[in-house]
Design brief:
6 helices, globular, binds flavin-adenine dinucleotide, flavoprotein, FAD-bd, FAD-binding domain-containing protein, transmembrane
Amino acid sequence: MSTATLHVGIIGGGIGGLAAAIAIERSGAKVTLLEAAKELGEIGAGIQMYPNISRFLIRWGVSDILGSQLVTHKYCNTWFGSELVAHSDPQWMAKATGFPWWVVRRDHLLSALKESAEKHGAEVIIATRIVEIDDSGKRVAVTSEDGRKFSFDFVVGADGLKSIIRNHIHPGVMPVAPSKSAAYIENGFFISIIRFRFT
Ligand SMILES: Cc1cc2nc3c(=O)[nH]c(=O)nc-3n(C[C@H](O)[C@H](O)[C@H](O)COP(=O)(O)OP(=O)(O)OC[C@H]3O[C@@H](n4cnc5c(N)ncnc54)[C@H](O)[C@@H]3O)c2cc1C
C-alpha cells in the first residue's frame, strides 16, 4: 500500500501526537488526531527546545509561527540544592550543532504545533477521549467515550503516561522515570532545579 492511501489515527494531542501528525502528513499519509481535552494548551512552565528539536521546528515552519515567543538565553545552570551540577552555554551548543537552543512556553508550543499540523493537512478533533480499541481486523477501530467510532489503517498511541493504547498492547506495563534530575518536585520538596539566565 502506498503511504498516499494510508489514513493514520493519532490518539493524543500533546507534543508527541502533534509532532507525529506533522511528520506523518509530510510523508504523504492522511492524519486524523483525536484529543481527549476540550482544548489544546497544556498549562505549565517553559520547555527547552534543544538543537535536535529546533531543527524540526525550523523545517516544519513551527519556528516561524512562534516568532518572538521563542526565547534564547545566556546560560543554563542546574542546581542540586546549593550545588551547581551542570552549566550549559547555548551559544556553544548552537555553534557545535548548527541549530539553536530555545526556551518556549508549553501553551505557545502546543498552539504552534497544532497550527502547523493543520497547515500540513492534519485533522485535529478535540473533546474525543478514546476508550476502546479493536485491532483484530484489517483496520484499527477506536471508539470515543461518547460513542463515536473511527477507523484507521494505522494508529499511533501518543496518549501520555497513562496511555490506553499502551495498556491495550502491553496490559499493566508502566514507564519508569530514568532520572529525577529536572525541575522536579517530589513529596513537596525540590529535588533539583534548572535556572536560566536570559539576555
Ligand atoms: C517538569 C518537566 C519539565 C520538562 N521539560 C522538558 C524540556 O525542557 N524539554 C523537553 O523536550 N521535554 C521536557 N519534559 C518532557 C515533556 O514535557 C514530555 O516528554 C512531553 O510533554 C510528553 O508529551 P506527550 O505528547 O508524549 O504526552 P502528553 O503531553 O501527556 O500528551 C498526551 C495527550 O494525550 C491525551 N490523551 C490521554 N488519554 C487520551 C485518550 N484516551 N484519548 C484521547 N486523548 C488522550 C491527553 O489529554 C494529552 O493531551 C518535561 C517534563 C516535565 C514533567
